[in-house]
Amino acid sequence: MSPLRTLLACTLAWLVPGGGHLYLKRPFKGVTFFCLVLLTFFLGLSLHGRAYLVDDEQPLLSALATFANVGAGPLDLLARTWTYQELAYRLPPDGQPGHDELQARMRARVLEPSYEYGTTFILTAGLMNILLILDAFDIAIGRKD
What we know:
By secondary structure, the protein is mainly alpha-helical.
């Protein structure tokens, strides 16, 4: 397989869950994965989950969680807009402009009883999509039938 085809399959898999599988002529898997990731993601939003921000107080864990969110592709943009009313990826240090507003929006979510479940569903959707990207890569390079 050509490197361009592999890159295109992985890019489509990141942009649209299951898109890489559709491109690689696996329509059933592609549509199934698309529905599964979207269902998981929107269930997370409906349960008041939030997208993670990189926080200097917990740099490693918050960076990993943020990476998992970004794995959902453009859905991550929706989650951040829904959660913070802006595309924020890092919590500014205390005293910096924007810190108090973002922290207030995060605290409002935490007060919801279903917050933990929702956030877990959003993280799971991103991690599933990362696995789909890797699966599309394996198919595109011929490692997997």
